[in-house]
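Hey,
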Amino acid sequence: MNFKKKLISGELIKRYKRFFVDVKIDNKTVTAHCPNTGSMMGLLEKGNKVWLSKSDNPKRKLKYTLQVIESNGSKVGVNTHLTNKIALDAIYKSKIQNFKNYDFIKQEIKFGNNTRFDLFLTKKNKKIFIEVKNVTLSRQKGIAEFPDAITSRGQKHIHELLNANKKGYKIYLLFVIQRDDCNKLKIAKDIDPKYCELLTKAVKKNLNILCYDCKFSTKGIKLNRKIKFKIK
């Protein structure tokens, strides 16, 4: 997944009201859009280096969008709107072994009365739902964690994926770790014990888990290595 233009570097001042960050660029303070409503735990230390994209749309009130934060020497992608694009790009380029040689793929497919799954594909007469989750948290060296806050939406997705499985769909959770410094993903039980419990049971009921980290360049962010998954 490539950015339209080269990102602009700056220095983080603060985040506030969830959707706003103040950033210093060449001794000038700008207010940028924060495209991540999560807690962004461990990333918001004042002085952290950040990278922003700039829009040419004259109607946009905020010209800049926060894309990447550097924390403890590691780049972390924080734009959750890019997560599905990163995953889709990897599938198109056959980077995910489980989804190679697919027949059909579509985004944002409705299931039931009030659920949409991120991706739907078919492969050799199999119908597959994929829910994609963005991961930024790392509290221990080499270990990524999800979630970084209680996620009622994530809990709902687990229930609905299991319902889809009962109707003949193969089901996947794809964790996209927008970091390049981790070799394992685990569930943050202390942050959301209910999510951990649900996921533990779901894995025993045919929910497939895939975890990949990301590689950063001046051009964009791409899915990189498959890494280990550990529930606890």
